[in-house]
Design a protein that fits this description.
alpha/beta, 320 residues, globular, single chain
Amino acid sequence: MVCKICNGRTKLGRKKLYDNRHGYPGKFSIETCSNCGFMQTVPQIPAKELTSLYTNYYPRRDADLETMQKKGVVIPDQWKIFEYGLETSCHYQTKKGDRVLDIGCGTCQSLLEIQKLGGEVYGIDPDKNSQKVAKKLKLKFHLGTIHNCKFPKNSFDLVTASQVLEHENDPIRFLMDCKRFLKPGGTIILSFPNCDSPFRNIWGTKWLHWHIPYHLNHFGRKSLNVLISKSDLKPISVKTRTPNLWTILQLRSWLNDSKEGVRDPMWDYKKTEEKKNKSKLSDKLILGCFKIIESLLIINRVPDYLGYGESFVVKLKAED
């Protein structure tokens, strides 16, 4: 195969991966570029099938709007963002008065948080379940992708895409299309998994961020640099962060015995909440242990600052 980032040749890497979360059928492989190290999932889900894929399989259909509204919107302070590795939620960098385009807004929680931060927000997602939530909350929303978005071009101070780039069929086109929505001097902030993280080899086929077949792209530092060079955007900062929740989910996923074509109960959020409410003492003790572990995971900041964290956080700027 040809690498979609640098046009180098690829070689077969991991084989027989499957959707160990939401039950999409079939087995997939990973092809790795011999030149830039970019990895891509094979076969790739065609762009025209994305709405169907996410609407039918992704857990946004479980979004509890009533609970979301009751809890209200609470923005973590800067210490919590640091402690829990929450910089991967790119929209937390919204400044008061910013006009923000949030791509991949999911349950629309991020849109409410951007409003709380004082931004004027617009959301994009290919999932029809997201559209239903946005309509109920009376939010500005586009069902689809950045490529067919009808919001006004050259009008946003900030474009955010938290854990989105890995889902895009064409990452280079994605960045170019994001740039068209920016005002001169506007900023794009992206987060996406880092396949240079040593945890990829530690966890092997059970690495959380293969996330077959939804993650189409797997970037390391070298392939990321090639991508940025082709985007005509100026890099402001590139760092890595590891959300503590990801470490907990990785441990839980590693302990789970998932099966191909079957939705794993761990990722069925409605059933998980029901289980929490009805769980035995032993189950509650296990959950308590995970909470204690999460509080100790500030140690994640060590690989983060060495550049080996689980997720990139990239800030890019349009020319003035």
